[in-house]
Amino acid sequence: MDRKDTDKKVHKEYSALETVPESERSISFMDMLVTWVGANANNGTWYVGGVVAGAAFGGAALVTLVSNPIAYIIMALIGFIGYKVGTSTMALMRPSFGIKGSFIPSILNITQFIGWTAVNTFIAAISISFILKDIFGLPAYGSSGSDKTMLIGIGVMSILHLISIASGHKSVKIVEKIGVVFILFLGIWETVVVLKQVPFSQIISWRPPADKAMSIGSAFDAMAAFSLGWVPAIADFTRYSKNRGASTIAPVIGANVGLFWFAFVGIIGAIGTAVTTGVYDPNNSDPSTIVSKLGLGVIALLVIILTSTTANAINLMAAGISVTNLNKKIKSQTALFIVTILSAILTIVPIYASSFLDSFEMFLNYIGMVFGPIFGIIITDYYLVRKKQYDAEEFDDPSGRYWYQSGFNLVTIGVWIISVIIYIFISKLPLFTSTIGAIYPIVLISGILYFASSKMFLNNK
Known about the structure:
By secondary structure, the chain is mainly α. It is 72% helix and 0% strand. The chain starts with a helix and ends with a helix.
């Protein structure tokens, strides 16, 4: 093979089922570290920090410091599977759910990552609306007639997204390296500005009004769902990792650093604004509104737009790769463009919805409900049931061990459905709403149910 052919092969974007050979694993420890700092140092993290500020500073800090490391340990466990097997996260669902059964988490995954793209795009479009107001006098978000301005912002962001995923994981790696510098700059800037305006002692002592207060359990679930939302994307990247550390330790460190910092920025930004204005409204916890109220100007708004692009590059990659698990004839690059267009369409919905916050909280609840049990099942299947033995060559073999009944593992699907029902029930119980929430318990419960049922019905097939 000559040099030209080699270069062409190295830049290939692998579909969900294709195993990435070790010779083409190009993501280093530092690449992965930067990628996941950039993934979490973004608008969404900032916004969720403002939302959980409803638990007051102490509660929000506790939730951030406890809930997220648990989520990223779960992410590392699945990231390691991707590194060892070499396929995408959704392909790794086939041994437990069955070849066709894996379409269920794939469809769910497509919807959630298109949803995350829409969330970040909407927040960035708010920034664009403020910029257009300053330059052209157009109505900014929240003002009468701002619908058209928001549509312009969504269009601009969609173009930036198409550029960011133009070359698959290669362009994503470049975008993250560039973006993380500006993102960290904005984080420092806003932290300094807030603490200059509002003494830290006032931020610590502030309490939300009773009608806006958030319980610890609800805050736990909001943070858990936010962080676990990244887990279905992890193997899509760790299969390109050069070594074990790059697939496990680097994502955990990067994701926690990015999240701790920007959730903290969101928390003190929302509380600082509440102290200075006398009004706390989690609906206005988005970075653009906070930056505008703090008077940070156009440069800060431009950085917010950039942070959306860095986070959404990963969101779109994960959604696109999931599409290829549904139909291997669809090329990865084609799938990426499809999900980018779909996310742009979905972003329009919150403009006409009654509340962006309500849509956001419903979305987080959806993630916890459907994906919590899936994570419990796949971790239990790989580490405990199959003893770290997956055969990627049989991932698409109708006569192989992962075919089960017409392509579906009905036992696993049954465990998943039962776990979703249990989640709906326990999520309303005071025992969970006042403590750790329902998401982490359901991860554990689904794992136990799957382990027991696999021993009873699957016989380690």
